[in-house]
Amino acid sequence: MSKPIAKSSKLANVCYDIRGPVLDKARQMEEEGHKIIKLNIGNLAVFGFDPPDEIVQDMIRNLAHTAGYTDSKGMFAPRRAVVGYTQEKSVTGVGVDDVYLGNGASELIVMSLNALLDNGDEVLVPAPDYPLWTAAVSLSGGNPVHYLCDEQSEWMPDIADIRRKITPNTRAIVVINPNNPTGALYPETLLQELVELARQHQLIVFADEIYDKTLYDGNTHTSIASLADDVLFVTFNGLSKNYRACGYRAGWMVVSGNKKIAGDYIVGLNMLASMRLCSNTPGQLAIQTALGGYQSIKDLVAPTGRLARQRDMAYEMLSAIPGVSVVRPKAALYMFPRLDPKMYPIEDDQQFAYELLAEEKVLIVQGTGFNWARPDHFRVVFLPNSDDLSDAINRIARFLDHYRKRNSQ
Question: What is the Cα–Cα distance from 112 to 265, expressed in whole angstroms?
Answer without folding.
Answer: 9
